[in-house]
């Protein structure tokens, strides 16, 4: 991936207010939901999401960790798709209580049984004005 393409991908990941998150259900079908990432710790390698343990997304990743993220920027017709692993994580991945990391919108959701999901990227596909680039990331599943 060219340096400028990598910068564009990172900028999209850091600026996107919402991602479409796709997981696979027990029947083998994709399930999609729109989730807002936590505003901190966004990188090409990982993002964090706040949701409820009772959601289909949280239930799906108990059986199948593979997931995809997608977002689109209409102003310049750029889209990004990330493929990787989605897992439940504890507070130990944050320097402070993860509740402090939530946006105002996420705090208003006030889930009764909240969880934090960590998405770890394996590959990135970015489309910019009819051009496409692809990057395979080497990840350590123990991170």
Number of domains: 1
- Please tell me the CATH architecture by its name: Roll
What is the terminal separation in angstroms? 23 Å
Approximate strand percentage: 35-45%
Number of discrete helical segments: 3
Summarize model confidence as the mean pLDDT. Answer: 84
Sketch the major β-sheet.
Answer: 7 strands, antiparallel
**Strand and helix order:** HEEEHEEHEE
CATH superfamily: Electron Transport, Fmn-binding Protein, Chain A
Low-confidence residue ranges? none
Q: What sort of overall outline do the alpha carbons produce when their principal axes are compared?
A: globular
In the CATH hierarchy, the third-tier topology is known as Pnp Oxidase, Chain A
Specify the CATH class: Mainly Beta
What does this structure look like?
This protein is α+β, with helices and mostly antiparallel strands and 143 residues long. It has one domain (3-136): Electron Transport, Fmn-binding Protein, Chain A (Pnp Oxidase, Chain A), CATH 2.30.110. It is built from 3 helices and 7 strands. It has helices spanning 3-15, 56-60, 104-109; strands at residues 19-24, 30-35, 46-52, 66-73, 78-89, 114-128, 131-136. Strands 1, 2, 3, 4, 5, 6 and 7 form a 7-stranded antiparallel beta sheet that branches. The longest helix has 13 residues, at 3-15. It is globular, with a radius of gyration of 15 Å. The mean pLDDT is 84.
In short:
With 143 residues, this protein is an alpha+beta fold. Helices cover 17% and strands 42% of the residues.
């Amino acid at each position: 991936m060219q340096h400028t393409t990598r910068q564009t991908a990172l900028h999209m990941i850091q600026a996107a207010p919402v991602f479409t998150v796709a997981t696979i259900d027990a029947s083998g079908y994709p399930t999609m939901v729109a989730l807002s990432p936590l505003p901190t710790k966004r990188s090409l390698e990982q993002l964090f999401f706040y949701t409820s343990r009772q959601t289909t997304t949280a239930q799906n990743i108990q059986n199948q960790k593979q997931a995809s993220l997608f977002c689109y920027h209409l102003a310049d017709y750029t889209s990004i798709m990330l493929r990787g692993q989605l897992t439940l994580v504890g507070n130990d991945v944050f320097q402070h209580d993860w509740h402090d990391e939530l946006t105002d919108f996420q705090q208003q959701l006030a889930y009764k049984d909240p969880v934090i999901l960590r998405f770890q990227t394996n590959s990135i596909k970015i489309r910019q004005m009819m051009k496409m680039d692809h990057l395979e990331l080497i990840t350590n599943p123990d991170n």
